[in-house]
């Protein structure tokens, strides 16, 4: 199954097995913001889903198979619109803050002001208890996930704006997708720049990979 989140305020579950393409279930999130949902597999066949709600600063956590609500995470009034999140349980707000939640006790565990601008993306290395976040600045912020949540490393880039971050599964390199259409590769340990992949100009394609050893390329925007 494949999950899809749209601007119609719904999250849909698709059956893509054996060349099928049918929606099997959907959830109304009522969110009109930019934040993507986040999925966490709790055991084989079961998962938790965190999604934004109609209240743009809140996170709702549900059981994926039944849509049963687990909890709603409500921050204090000083934090603004939710921009991105990652299950394990970090969320960020439009004022550049990172918020770590203890979902089992439904309370905020730690809060860190990481960026002066809204946080646009983040990723987490669970093994190293360490995360990375990016915004519209020329700076990547790396931070630990201990009780202090200290900022560890700052890496400046030549061009501002990061839309996506991805730490490789072996924890050795980090890839960033920049607003200047370039992909930058860093060493994850010290954020040392390794390469700039200059290929994309204005093409708007989506590539997806699966365990079937295939990569599909989709055109998801109209030409107009």
From TrEMBL:
Protein name: Guanine nucleotide binding protein (G protein), beta polypeptide 1-like
Keywords carried by this UniProt record: Repeat, WD repeat
PANTHER family documented for this protein: GUANINE NUCLEOTIDE-BINDING PROTEIN SUBUNIT BETA-LIKE PROTEIN 1 (PTHR19854:SF1), TRANSDUCIN BETA-LIKE 3 (PTHR19854)
Domain of life of the organism encoding this protein: Eukaryota
Entry annotated with the keyword Electron transport: no
Pfam family name, one: WD40
Entry keyword annotation includes Repeat: yes
Ranges in coiled-coil conformation: none
SMART domains reported for this sequence: WD40
WD repeat feature ranges: 202-224
